[in-house]
Amino acid sequence: MMDAELPELLWYKRLALEYKLVHEHEPLFDVVDGDLTHYRGVIIGEGLYEGGYFKVEILIPRTFPYTPPDVVWWTRIWHPNFTDEVPARVCESILKEDWSPSLHVITLIETLRNLLNNPNPEDPLNTIAAMEMKFRPDIFEARVKQYLELFARPEQALTR
Asked: Is 91 in the active site?
């Protein structure tokens, strides 16, 4: 990754484009207090995570788009690709080596949604969840449901 920065005017134009794209495609995300470098939103789970509402913040650094935004995952989750802590760390290559300046904030949100709904036990941050998923799916699924009930209810995610 480069530590380069866009010239200020181009950076503001890029931030305006990101806002437009998020506004058009991700209705559960919005900027925080008018700050185009700070988004807050909710990703709704599907499949095993159906019914879960997951609060996420995205922080855009001055080096964007050459470096990826930072993601803060505020909802506790039982998942092989997220740490079991608040805020959780996320195991996703788009946040590191696979980031490209041609990608957008909406790409990142969609990637997070895809990772949430399609856990990968082969590349875990939470090795216990990964082992449960691979070898004891009944226990894994029960714990996912327990976490959804305890931590991922709509009223928890939809409050500031």
From this structure: yes
